[in-house]
Recover the amino acids of this structure.
């Protein structure tokens, strides 16, 4: 199975390679443009409050992905079922081997999310989660993994007295966040946020969808910082039984860009992580499967009913389960990387039955 | 006369699809190619009439839709308010509301674009009904998302959609109204975008929807302009239309925007109060233009009912069709620049407007349009000598709600509903 995928990828890469050579000049120009864009941005490390050493990479987000490949990126919704629980959960994900952690700042109209994360957002809002409470949680967290905030554009605009992205970005940097992901902000509308993130040393991660192609893809990839969030399938977030076939196509399309690529949407098991890394990704992103664990241990049920939730029934169970899940995913990712790095010539022959 | 770009508030160097500070394209990345494909189709087929699209659209509007609709002098209202009152009879469009103008345009456009499937959201059910009719007429499969609360309060329209062959998917989330239905339709679209067209029902959403829907609805104001000159020999002093998302409003206003002498009034749902309950996240109204603040929802920067943190409020109106926490970005821009005057009428005055028109003119208006009629009653003295009110739809769909609401209130214009036993 894995060999088939590998062979298919090699053949696709071969075809692409031929096409690439024809347009080599154009691609070189594109690369140069990317590099110039990056050089113009200050490295996050340089302005981080912790005064950490600058790395060889553009930012600590990129470093986190590149230095411990394959990378595991985990997501949970802040405030689900309470900010206190979130702190314990994030620390568990960190111990479990997350290289980056995305924290969802809940917005009432999460159009890019499936039912699992929408329910988590409802639980967090019912528990009274506010942007300020979120930033206080972030400031209080001590994790090895850099933290990113994932939220919708209106939440960013409304922080502060007037609709403006800057107060949010400044507060995010002050609280110790390393980057921002905004599912309803395409590159075309991202100018003001891009500028504010650059000024404050934050990465702005863009999502690459299965529908993103051609010139549009070039434009977005030239703006990406930290990593490219590769959406494995069309639709909304949510754990799925299988890795989407679109993942392989997406990664093949992106192979010529020297930007770390992490694949999310539908990833729920170690085996998925292995398959995705094997397909050529630098990292895997897992959200709904972790939120499911939190929901199982929470008294809130579906979260659609309005009720105040102080904390989960048994946070320690959820903490253990989250840490174990992160370990499973990280192991899966490593397994995928091992398969990729072993040369097929040197791979032991399968045993004859 | 100002150019189209200037009127839309777009500067030469500015972003596309904006009206001053409002509008834009705030959608998940997966939808951007579809939005751009639509932008291209809008340019070619709608603006440039490629392949005779607009000719076919106008022909179908006439033969299937029943246009033009009359501009009727309302004799008893004219007498009551001592001025000339004309009613634009969008209630006489096929399906009973202005919604067909847009639904027919978009379903036809989807067909020209080679899409295989139609989806739409609906609040009161009028847009869903119009889309289901247009889809049946043009032989396209169609699915409609509708909030659970709205399914319950607009049952006749649910039946009508199903009779026209559409599937109706109730949305249980939140308060089960239009906002939730839009969220769910966007999710469907993000999953099936390559073969599906999302028929947005108002002048809301990402560019090009606000402009395109406005252009499909502009037939209302174009007809009024011609008809009022034939009947009264001049342009009106004011045009009054109700505003939820704002499609009948922009449709009625668009032709008059350059005519500074014509006052434009957008009447929103004042609900039970204009005050908001920040703690509960509730606005007991849908008066976005009057009380909202700038933000991003459902693909566009516009005015919104939202908390100071940016959470969208649950809105309210006795009229399901106005019950929305956002509004079209072009209307936000026209209000911001002072061209359109925002106003609001509460549930009770709207219900009185409903009964008054039914009793005096023999026209049962939609509860949405009843807000415009409520405003006419309250503010007729400020509207000039020649007034046009857009009756955006008919009220048959609202009878259950009206009977229920009338029983619990002391309405001056209502008949005694207790004797409605048979």
């Amino acid at each position: 199975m894995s060999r088939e995928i590998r062979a298919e990828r090699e053949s696709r890469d071969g075809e692409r390679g031929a096409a690439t050579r024809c347009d080599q000049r154009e691609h070189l120009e594109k690369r140069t443009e990317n590099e110039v864009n990056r050089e113009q941005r200050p490295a996050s490390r340089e302005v981080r409050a912790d005064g950490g050493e600058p790395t060889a990479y553009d930012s600590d987000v990129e470093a986190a992905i590149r230095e411990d490949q394959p990378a595991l990126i985990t997501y949970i919704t802040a405030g689900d079922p309470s900010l206190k629980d979130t702190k314990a959960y994030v620390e568990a994900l960190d111990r479990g081997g997350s290289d980056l952690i995305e924290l969802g700042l809940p917005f009432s109209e999460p159009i890019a999310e499936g039912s699992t994360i929408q329910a988590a957002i409802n639980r967090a809002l019912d528990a009274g989660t506010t942007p300020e409470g979120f930033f206080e949680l972030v400031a209080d967290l001590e994790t090895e993994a850099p933290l990113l905030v994932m939220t919708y554009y209106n939440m960013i605009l409304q922080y502060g007295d007037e609709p403006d992205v800057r107060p949010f970005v400044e507060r995010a940097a002050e609280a110790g966040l390393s980057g921002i992901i905004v599912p309803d902000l395409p590159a075309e509308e991202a100018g003001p946020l891009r500028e504010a993130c650059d000024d404050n040393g934050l990465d702005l991660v863009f999502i690459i969808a299965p529908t993103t192609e051609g010139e549009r893809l070039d434009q977005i990839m030239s703006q990406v910082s930290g990593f490219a969030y590769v959406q494995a399938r069309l639709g909304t977030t949510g754990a799925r039984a299988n890795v989407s076939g679109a993942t392989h196509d997406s990664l093949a399309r992106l192979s010529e860009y020297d930007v770390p690529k992490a694949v999310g949407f539908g990833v729920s098991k170690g085996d998925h992580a292995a398959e995705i890394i094997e397909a050529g990704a630098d990292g895997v992103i897992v959200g709904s499967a972790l939120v499911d664990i939190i929901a199982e241990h929470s008294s809130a049920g579906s979260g659609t009913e309005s009720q105040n939730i102080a904390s989960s029934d048994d946070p320690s169970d959820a903490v253990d389960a989250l840490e174990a899940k992160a370990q499973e995913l990280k192991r899966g990712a490593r397994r995928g990387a091992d398969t990729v790095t072993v040369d097929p010539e040197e791979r032991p022959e399968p045993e004859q039955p | 006369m100002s150019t189209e770009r200037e009127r839309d508030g777009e500067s030469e160097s500015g972003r596309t699809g904006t009206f001053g500070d409002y509008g834009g394209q705030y959608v998940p990345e997966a939808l951007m190619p579809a939005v751009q494909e639509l932008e291209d189709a809008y340019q070619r087929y709608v603006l440039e009439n490629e392949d005779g699209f607009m000719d076919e659209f106008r022909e179908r509007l006439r033969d299937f839709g029943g246009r033009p609709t009359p501009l009727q002098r309302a004799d008893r209202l004219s007498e009551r308010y001592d001025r000339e009152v004309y009613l634009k009879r969008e209630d006489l469009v096929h399906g009973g509301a202005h919604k067909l103008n847009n639904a027919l345009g978009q379903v036809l456009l989807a067909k020209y674009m080679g899409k295989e499937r139609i989806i739409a959201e609906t609040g009161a059910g009028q847009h869903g009904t119009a889309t289901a009719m247009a889809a049946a007429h043009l032989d396209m499969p169609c699915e409609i998302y509708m909030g659970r609360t709205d399914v319950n309060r607009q049952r006749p329209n649910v039946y009508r959609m199903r009779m026209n062959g559409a599937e109706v998917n109730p949305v249980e989330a939140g308060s089960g109204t239009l906002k939730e239905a839009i969220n769910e339709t966007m999710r469907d679209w993000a999953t099936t975008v390559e073969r599906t067209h999302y028929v947005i029902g108002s002048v809301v959403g990402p560019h090009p929807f606000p402009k395109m829907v406005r252009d499909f609805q502009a037939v209302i104001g174009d007809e009024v302009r011609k008809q009022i000159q034939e009947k009264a020999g001049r342009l009106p002093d004011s045009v009054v239309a109700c505003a939820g998302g704002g499609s009948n409003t922009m449709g009625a206003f668009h032709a008059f925007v350059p005519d500074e002498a014509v006052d434009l009034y957008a009447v929103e749902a004042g609900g039970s109060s204009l005050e908001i309950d920040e703690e509960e996240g509730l606005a007991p109204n849908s008066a976005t233009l009057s009380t909202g603040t700038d933000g991003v929802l459902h693909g566009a920067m516009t005015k919104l009912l939202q908390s100071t943190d940016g959470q969208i409020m649950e809105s309210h109106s006795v009229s399901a069709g106005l019950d929305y926490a956002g509004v079209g970005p072009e209307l936000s821009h026209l209000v911001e620049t002072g061209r359109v005057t925002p106003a609001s009428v509460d549930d009770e005055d709207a219900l009185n407007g409903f009964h008054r028109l039914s009793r005096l003119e023999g026209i049962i208006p939609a509860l949405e349009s009843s807000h415009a009629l409520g405003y006419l009653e309250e503010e007729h003295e400020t509207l000039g000598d020649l007034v046009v009110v857009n009756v955006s739809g008919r009220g048959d769909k609202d009878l259950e709600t009206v009977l229920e609401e009338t029983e619990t209130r002391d309405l001056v214009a209502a008949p005694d509903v207790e004797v409605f036993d048979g």
About this structure: Chain A has 15 helices and eight strands. The first strand of chain A starts at residue 71 and ends at 77. Chain A touches chain B at residues 107-112, 114, 118, 125, 130-131, 152-155, 157-159, 163, 183-186, 188-189, 206-213, 216, 220, 231, 234-236, 304 (CB under 8 Å). Confidence is low (pLDDT under 50) at residues 1-54, 300-310 of chain A.
